[in-house]
Amino acid sequence: MSIFQELKAFMMRGNVVDMAVGVIIGGAFGQIVTSFVNDVVMPPIGVLLNGVNFTDLKFVIKEASIDAAGKELPAVSLNYGNFIQMVINFVIISTVIFFAIKGMNKLQNKKAEEPAPPAAPSNEEVLLTEIRDLLRNQSK
């Protein structure tokens, strides 16, 4: 089998295609949640904190300056506000995913709880039932 045939067989497996679909949907879902956090959750939090935008919070270690050659050197800072924003994003995304998976599991459990129809008796059981019935009829 050539390498191209092996690659084609690998790419056509169901789990690879499922994974690709999951990655695409996950990326789109990530954008939705990011918009939810940035456009819905963070503005009220910013208002509660007197208009503070978390991404602007930083601790400047060294101010911007100009070196001897006249080249501007950027400031060196710890951008802890951006870190806080990412932690909030993570908590919200984790919560949304938790409830989405919990809902899907609940739907799957309902399907699993439906009782299966009783299994048909095996050939041995059918034969034993017939023998039992014949013996009953003989004793009467």
UniProtKB/TrEMBL annotation:
It is a multi-pass membrane protein. InterPro entries: Mechanosensitive_channel_CS, MS_channel, MSC/AndL, MscL_channel. Coiled coil: none annotated. It is found in: Cell membrane. It comes from the Bacteria. GO terms for molecular function: mechanosensitive monoatomic ion channel activity. GO terms for cellular component: plasma membrane. Belongs to the MscL family. Homopentamer. Channel that opens in response to stretch forces in the membrane lipid bilayer. May participate in the regulation of osmotic pressure changes within the cell. HAMAP family: MscL (MF_00115). This is Large-conductance mechanosensitive channel.
